[in-house]
Task: structure prediction
Amino acid sequence: MRPSWLLLLAVGVLLWGEPSRGTEADTVTAPVSWAARGGELRLRFNHDVLGLYGVRLRLPKTPVDSGEPSFALFPILSSTALELGVSREGLQRLSGGALEARGWLVFEGPAGRIRLSSLQLRPKDGSTADLQLVDEAGEGVLRVTHPMIGIEEARRRLMIHTADLIVEPRLAERLGVAALSGKTVGELRLRMPIVQGPGEEPLIAKCASPNFHGMPHPSGGTYRTDVLIESLSWHVMRCRHSAASGPCDGPGGDDGVVVFAPGAALRNGDTPHTADVPWYRKFQTSPHPYPYPGNDQHPYLVWNLYRILDGRLEQIGASGLKHAFYTINWYCAPGACGAGGGNILGRACYDIYSQSSNDYGPELGPRRELIPFTGQWGRCGSIFDPGCTGSQTHPNPNGPYDHRLIVRESQLSAAGAQFFAEGWYVIQDDQDIYNTMGHVPVTIEFDGYAWSPTVSGPMTRGPVIDRWVDPNLYPHRNREITSPHGRVKVAVRVQPLAACPPASGLSPPCYRFDYAVQNLDFAVSQTSGTPPNLRVLAQRGLREFRLGLDAGLAVWIPPDAFADLDTQPANDWTAMRDGGALVFSGSPGTDLLWGTLYRFGFLTDQPLEESALYPLTLIEPDSGTQLSGMIAGPASITRVFRDGFE
Result:
């Protein structure tokens, strides 16, 4: 461990777990003392979550940010300051101090009313392990965690680009809603001028020549992009009645809709050939002529929710596309490019995105605007720039339920179900997509007010389908199919049944076959223009699943053989036998799109045959694109006779 970086954990990353690091000697320079004074505190509250727990929040009529009107502005008194420890590698620690902002908050809950007549921000319990907003008696009200914190030296200011506001137990108790403790109820941002510093200018080291993907390495070969996901958390953001007439009411009532969002962390690779990764906010132009000239290249994050019920895997939720906008670059390798934070993710550098940030409408868009296999975004004609002006002309095109991961309450209340949350950073030129995606087991229960998720195990890198069927243990049952348009995974599980369903017409023993097809990054995209003014005109996924079986194999397709994301049977794919093949196909608008998983199934009276592989074809009919492979399937009596294995 690099001791000097322990201090950086103090601003909130302790809650995320410690990222992996290299073994090079610590060469971080000794920090010098700076101070930040004045500026403004910006707060945005999630009134939806507060309302679920019967809490109202009143704010003064403070000014709002003209570019981000959901944030209320609170001026920081110039008589208060934060003390900073800064080195050539950037911000090393918050050395001390406290802030007070002009303004007030009033919380009203079942047990009473709490007024904060001033907003004081200070280290929790006199340390820098966490920050707190405290009341006049010095008691913590809201904990400030997961801060994306850094110094913008060009403007000489301290920035917290985003941080979560978490309800402290004492506030929940005073409001009379113990279940609200630990819930994320808002977002904090901070801008403060640096008013005291060393005589040396500039202090923070700059990186003039990043080593981007594809550039030659001095020892041979080229630099390669390989970013790894480090952690994933899961949080409820809002929930409403199916008719949008009020809050959701839990199991057995109205089938309302629930929005979940993750917190996520990543780090860059740590090898001699690790490439620096560009990280420019959308519509911000990169100053580097290579490898993406004039482009606002940045990573993207998508997240999904899955359920395993009775051994069958199905996806029950999918988010829109989160546009990443800044990297804090903690734990960087010595001399890493971008160690001061900002627009380049350097070697071994670590970054976080809070759940509040991932639920922020102005950074969310539809997945269809991204070509996932290449990581190229069609910003021209996007929901942010419909007129292709090259700037964000629509500041926030989203309501609170647009481009979020939405799940029906009925999908969460099935007895015996297991849930898994998955997150994936999509990064242009990344060499291994499987280590940029990860999943965690999640327990989701209704706590009397809202659906409350709890991560119940460690994160595993890779897609959920690899947990359902381990490709290392069962390579014939979990196969990757590749094409010039992207990759798809197909896996199969078989379950012996105690009895054959009477409607099947099958004689025992019976076996249920479930095939999960996960479209990782396959998309046939119609485009115009070139980056940065690329336009994605249309995008297709897959619309047919064809499994080659022997014509003599008896098969029954039960009513619940197919499962997609929603609970609407009208858009389900239909099934038929076509000679020896079993075919599931969809109508226009029901494509298996990238980042999505569908399940297909059938019953037969023959067990799984591990030694034989059967032809599998996935078809996108409009373009004629086909993905073909082989996967394990049921043994056939006719095949056994034909091959002389009787």
Remarks:
- The first strand starts at residue 32 and ends at 37.
- Residues 1-26, 638-646 have pLDDT under 50 and may be disordered.
